Amino acid sequence: MYTDAELLRLVERGENVQIEFKRLVHSPEKIAKSMVAFANTAGGVILIGVDDDKRIVGIESEKETIEIIDEAAHEFVAPKINYVTDVVEFRARDVLMVTVEESERKPHFHISYPRHSDTLKRKKEKKVYIRKDSHNVAATREEVHLMEDEEKPLIISYGENEQLLFRYLDTYHRITLKEFSKLVNISTKRASIILISLVRAGVIHLHNEGKQNYYTLAAS
Prior knowledge:
The protein has 220 residues and is of the alpha+beta class. The protein folds into two domains: 4-138, 2-Layer Sandwich (Methyltransferase, Cobalt-precorrin-4 Transmethylase, Domain 2); 148-217, Arc Repressor Mutant, subunit A, CATH 1.10.10. It has seven helices and eleven strands. It has helices spanning 4-13, 28-40, 62-75, 141-149, 160-172, 177-184, 188-200; strands at 19-22, 44-48, 77-78, 83-90, 93-100, 109-112, 125-127, 129-132, 135-138, 204-209, 212-217. A four-stranded mixed sheet has the order 1-2-5-4, sandwiched between helices. Strands 3-6-7 form a three-stranded antiparallel sheet. The longest helix has 14 residues, at 62-75. This is Putative transcriptional regulator. InterPro entries: Schlafen_AlbA_2_dom, Schlafen_AlbA_2_dom_sf, WH_DNA-bd_sf. Residues 15-139 form the Schlafen AlbA-2 domain.
């Protein structure tokens, strides 16, 4: 259970990779995106009843807000995530704190049912979201693969392809998946497997710039 002093400390830190403010919530589908992003990254706290400018405005109904959170977690997130809800009273205003654990079963998917523009029928969609600074962003294919491979045994070998990669990075400092695939003349699927294994081993780093990923050598 959080105290009002702990609540104030979180609010003063502002929104970041582990803290998000929501003045109120109406849509389980929308808040589920934040819950998925926290579970897929480093965990975090959603403060409902706090404005973007750090004003604590409170929530109108504790019961209804918790019901929305529970519906979000059970209907719009797969697989299930671990979270707890706490209500903190601050100057006669209630703030709902939703604490989401970083998951050991990544990736988690956000489930939505957008309406098709032609048929007007709803179609189920699944997307992986992660936190970048104070935003929820769709994970790239490489980032999803990295999550999926976390539980697999790590086997690393430094063959000709890896040596070519290291020499290239020594000279040009960064490389994309397509560039590496072309450099060593292999499919992007095989190239991705090599790169993700090296990221898991801590030999190279994966970076995201807009919608494009690139890789660099890890700092020695």
